[in-house]
Design brief:
With 71 residues, the chain is mostly helical. 21% of the residues lie in helices and 0% in strands. It has 2 helices and no strands. It is elongated, with a radius of gyration of 27 Å. The protein starts with 36 loop residues before the first helix and ends with a helix. Residues 1-71 are annotated as: Disordered.
């Protein structure tokens, strides 16, 4: 904006940049590669194996840990 301060009669010009896709096929669009859809590899809700999770801490253990962190 600072370089247009002297030319108040000059209109701003805007341009539209072309999209990088060469076809209308979304499977070939490079912008869609590596997004969140590829994280799990399949659509829909994911059901994880809960047997691999560690046991949750008891209230006493949580209170002790909280006191330790808040020193």
């Amino acid at each position: 904006m600072s370089d247009n301060q002297g030319n108040k009669n000059e209109e701003q010009s805007f341009t539209i940049q072309p999209h990088p896709a060469t076809t209308n096929d979304p499977n070939t669009d490079p912008a869609l590669k590596g997004g969140q859809a590829d994280v799990f590899g399949k659509p829909g809700p994911q059901i994880f194996d809960t047997s691999k999770l560690e046991e949750p801490l008891s209230k006493d253990e949580l209170a002790k840990r909280s006191a330790e962190l808040n020193k």
